[in-house]
Specification:
361 residues; alpha/beta; globular
Length: 361
């Protein structure tokens, strides 16, 4: 199966060819975070993917017309060959290259190496779950905040501040820290702060200390955005948070899920058609042995069936029928529904919040 043939197979099935592939290059991690969806860093976690297999996948992605790649884990900096993967992706000419890291293992030499690969499409996505140590360390362990901020500053000192995107997980204990986190990011010279609500799956489903924010917490934050000029200025310059974007925008949703435009590949070779939708019944296994093109062709009929389910959600879900935001939401994120409760036909786990925001509008 050639990359061209795989692309034709996807198109005939009503699917898109991969645009950005997220590859988990290892299951190893220096942390065992309480909210880790893939439960990385444990004894049973997948080992490092061999560098040769990863490089072959990177080259195959380019051959299928992919223009972006995201290296994640586990913690990708645990993999000894991650710099070579960044260099290869840059040499091939991907329009976007992202490295998702906790930044704790980053050295001055590695920051300098990333500087040599710098271009407008480079993104270094660093996890930071609070503006101060207690909120972050509750999730990631004592000392994690100070080491993560040190890594962020190391990148900024190397001239990469605008390439840094802080990834903030919205949780009940830390949501109120979001404005202060924007202040911290602005002070360091970070390019963006992107928030995403906790999904109660993976390790977080077993951790009673962690929970998604309550609806009234979000409503207070929305009120602060309306009344606090400094917060509004910083958010408009740096921030992205779904709740605030729902308040600010009201355009109808143009389409549902775009399988397999943004697929996700695990370190044990399991390919999902979406970064968020980890339903094993719709995954292709053994990808490192089969190759990317053959795996995409194998996945096409599975993902077409998944696409039909996605398209049916807005009409089938009772929660959508009387919702004033039905056109904008169209059933919400099917991947989040699966991740939070294991049901592709359940409402998005943020459904109640969306409805409250639509009522405000």
């Amino acid at each position: 199966m050639t990359p061209f043939d795989a692309a034709k197979t996807l198109k005939r099935a009503g699917l898109r060819s991969p645009k950005t592939l997220t590859i988990a290059i290892t299951g190893a991690c220096n942390l065992t975070c309480g909210h880790c969806w893939v439960e990385a860093g444990e004894t049973a976690s997948a080992p490092h993917v061999p560098a040769r297999a990863l490089m072959r996948l990177v080259e195959e992605l380019a051959a299928t017309g992919g223009t972006g790649i995201r290296f994640t884990g586990g913690e990708p900096l645990c993999h000894p060959d991650w710099p070579d993967l960044i260099r290869l992706a840059r040499t091939i000419g991907f329009r976007s290259i992202a490295l998702q890291t906790n930044a704790m293992l980053l050295t001055d030499e590695q920051a300098a190496l990333l500087r040599t690969c710098d271009f407008p499409g480079l993104s270094i996505q660093v996890s930071l779950d609070g503006a101060e140590a207690p909120g972050h360390d509750l999730v990631r362990g004592d000392g994690a905040f100070d080491r993560a901020v040190a890594g962020i500053r190391r990148l900024a000192d190397a001239g990469l501040g605008r390439r840094i995107s802080i990834a903030f997980t919205e949780m009940r204990h830390n949501l109120e820290e979001f404005p202060a986190l924007l202040e911290l990011a602005a002070g360091i010279g970070v390019g963006a702060v992107v928030a995403g609500s906790l999904i109660t799956g993976g390790r977080s489903a077993k951790t009673p200390l962690l929970a998604p924010p309550a609806q009234d917490q979000y409503l207070r934050l929305l009120d602060r955005y309306a009344t606090d000029a400094r917060f509004r200025e910083l958010y408009d310059a740096l921030g992205t948070m779904a709740a605030l974007e729902w308040l600010r925008g009201d355009a109808p949703r143009g389409e549902c899920c775009t399988f397999a435009e943004n697929p996700y590949l695990t370190p044990d070779g399991r390919l999902y058609p979406c970064l968020l939708c980890h339903a094993d019944a719709y995954a292709v296994t053994g990808v490192f042995g089969k190759g990317l093109a053959a795996s995409l062709a194998e996945g096409a009929p599975l993902w077409t069936a998944l696409l039909r389910i996605s398209r049916s959600r807005a009409e089938a879900l009772a929660a959508c029928r009387e919702c004033p935001g039905g056109l904008a939401c169209a059933g919400g994120c099917m991947g989040r529904a699966w991740g939070s409760c294991g049901d592709l036909m359940a409402p998005d786990d943020r459904c109640g919040l969306r409805q409250a925001i639509y009522r405000l509008k």
